[in-house]
UniProtKB/TrEMBL annotation:
Domain of life: Bacteria
PANTHER family, sorted: BACILYSIN EXPORTER BACE-RELATED (PTHR43266:SF10), MACROLIDE-EFFLUX PROTEIN (PTHR43266)
Keyword DNA damage recorded: no
PROSITE patterns: MFS
Lineage: Bacteria, Bacillati, Bacillota, Clostridia, Eubacteriales
Subcellular location: Cell membrane
Protein known as: MFS transporter
Main subcellular localisation: membrane
Segments forming domain Major facilitator superfamily (MFS) profile: 1-168, 188-378
Keyword flag Transmembrane: yes
InterPro entries: MFS, MFS_dom, MFS_trans_sf
Pfam family, one: MFS_1
Organism: Clostridium malenominatum
Residues annotated as transmembrane: 17-41, 48-69, 143-165, 198-218, 230-251, 258-277, 283-306, 318-337, 349-366
C-alpha cells in the first residue's frame, strides 16, 4: 500500500519536499518505537507481538479508507496513517527477525532467509502492478481495503502456527525495561561484529536514499508520470530482488558472508551510477532489474550472521538497534536529498551516491576483523 501512497503524493504534488515528508512519516515512528520494540521482542511472546502490530496497521488502514470514502481528502491524513503503519512495523520487524531462528535450524538459515526474501520480493512485485491498475481505473481507497483483507489473512495464518515461547519470555521478568535496554546496548557495543555491521548500515542507509526513494520522482520528471511507468519502475526492481533471492536460496553466497555483503554493496553502487546515466526508459528499467538482484547479496547474509551470532534472548534488541539505524537515517537522508532533488538533477545525485557506495564496498575488504567474522562454519 505504501507504493500507492507515495505515487499518489508524487503525482499529485511533483514535490521533492512532499515526498520527503511522506518518507519521514514512513520511517521516523519506527525510530521512536524501536527502542521499546527490541526489549519487548526479548521479554514477551514474539508471535503475539507480530499479530498485535499487524492488527494495528490494518486498523489504521481501514480507518483511512473509510475517511476517504466519506469524501475527506487531505494529504496530511495520508501522512498520519503512514506514521501509524510505520509505528506498527517498528514493533513487528524485530519480533519477526528474532522469531525466524526459533523455528529454523541454524544450517538452514541462509536458505530460509533467501526464500523469505524471494517471497517478499514476489509480493512487492505484484503490489505495484495491482496498485497501478487500481489507481489507473479506480481509487486509492480500493487499495486500502485490499491491504486490510490481506492483513486479516496473514494474521489468521500466523495464529495457526505453533511456536514455543523463547526462554526469556517464559521466565518471570525480575528486571525493569531500562535494565534490559542497557544490557542490550552493552552487548552490542562490546561485540565487534555488531558494531562493524551497524556502522556499515549507517553509511549504506544514507547513501541509498536517492536510489531507494527518489527514483519515483526521477521517473515522473524524466520519463513521464503515467502510472504504467511507475508500475514498471517498481516491478522491475522487485522482479530483480525476487531473482536475487532465488539465487541466494540456492547458492548461499560466498563462504565468507561479509565478502558477499561487500560485493553486493559495490554492485548496487555501480548500478546506481548506471541509473543516473540512463537516458532511455527501457534501458533504465533493465538496469533496475539488475539493481534489484543485488539487494539479497547484502540483506540475506547480514540477517543470517546476526541470527547465528547473537544470543537468542538478545536478538530482539540487536535487531531493533539495526532497525533504529535504518529508520533513523532514512529520514535524515531524505531531509538532505529530498530538498536537493528540487535544486540538483536526481540523476546527478544517483551518480555521486553510487560512486560513494562503491568506495564503501571496497573499504569492507580492508576491515580484517569484519571479514574474519563473516566466515561460514557450516
Amino acid at each position: 500500500m505504501q507504493f500507492a501512497i507515495i505515487w499518489y503524493i508524487a503525482r499529485a504534488t511533483d514535490s521533492g519536499m512532499m515526498v520527503t515528508i511522506s518518507t519521514i512519516c514512513s520511517f521516523l515512528p519506527q525510530l521512536f518505537i524501536s527502542l521499546f520494540a527490541g526489549v519487548w521482542a526479548d521479554r514477551y511472546n514474539r508471535k503475539l507481538l507480530i499479530v498485535l502490530s499487524d492488527g494495528l496497521i490494518a486498523t489504521a488502514t481501514l480507518i483511512l479508507a473509510i475517511i476517504l470514502l466519506s469524501g475527506y481528502n487531505n494529504m496530511w491524513i495520508l501522512f498520519l496513517v503512514s506514521g501509524i503503519r510505520s509505528f506498527g512495523s517498528g514493533i513487528q520487524t524485530p519480533a519477526v527477525n528474532a522469531l525466524i531462528p526459533q523455528i529454523v535450524p541454524e544450517e538452514k538459515l541462509m536458505r530460509v532467509n533467501g526464500i523469505n526474501g524471494t517471497i517478499q520480493s514476489l509480493i512487492l512485485l505484484v503490489s505495484p502492478a495491482v496498485s497501478g491498475t487500481i489507481l489507473t481505473y479506480g481509487k486509492l481507497e480500493s487499495i486500502l481495503f485490499l491491504d486490510v483483507i490481506t492483513a486479516i489473512i496473514a494474521i489468521s495464518i500466523l495464529l495457526t502456527l505453533r511456536v514455543a515461547v523463547h526462554k526469556k519470555a517464559a521466565e518471570k521478568q525480575d528486571t525493569d525495561y531500562f535494565y534490559d535496554l542497557k544490557e542490550g546496548i552493552k552487548y552490542s557495543l562490546n561485540n565487534s561484529f555488531i558494531k562493524n555491521l551497524i556502522i556499515f548500515y549507517a553509511i549504506f542507509t544514507i547513501l541509498i536514499v536517492p536510489a531507494a526513494f527518489l527514483n519515483v520522482l526521477m521517473v515522473t520528471r524524466t520519463f513521464g508520470n503515467e502510472y504504467w511507468r511507475l508500475t514498471a519502475n517498481e516491478m522491475s526492481f522487485f522482479a530483480g530482488s525476487m531473482v536475487g533471492g532465488i539465487i541466494m536460496a540456492t547458492w548461499g553466497g560466498f563462504k565468507n558472508r561479509v565478502i558477499t555483503i561487500a560485493v553486493g554493496c559495490c554492485a548496487f553502487g555501480a548500478l546506481t551510477v548506471a541509473v543516473g546515466i540512463a537516458k532511455v526508459f527501457y534501458v533504465y528499467i533493465a538496469i533496475m532489474v539488475l539493481t534489484g538482484m543485488t539487494i539479497p547479496l547484502f540483506n540475506s547474509p547480514s540477517m543470517v550472521l546476526l541470527q547465528e551470532k547473537v544470543e537468542t534472548d538478545m536478538q530482539g534488541r540487536v535487531f531493533s538497534f539495526v532497525q533504529i539505524v535504518s529508520s533513523g537515517l532514512m529520514p535524515l537522508g531524505m531531509i538532505v536529498f529530498g530538498p536537493l532533488a528540487d535544486i540538483i538533477k536526481i540523476e546527478r545525485l544517483m551518480i555521486i551516491t553510487g560512486l560513494l557506495l562503491i568506495v564503501l564496498g571496497i573499504s569492507i575488504f580492508y576491515n580484517k576483523s569484519f571479514i574474519k567474522e563473516g566466515i561460514n562454519q557450516n
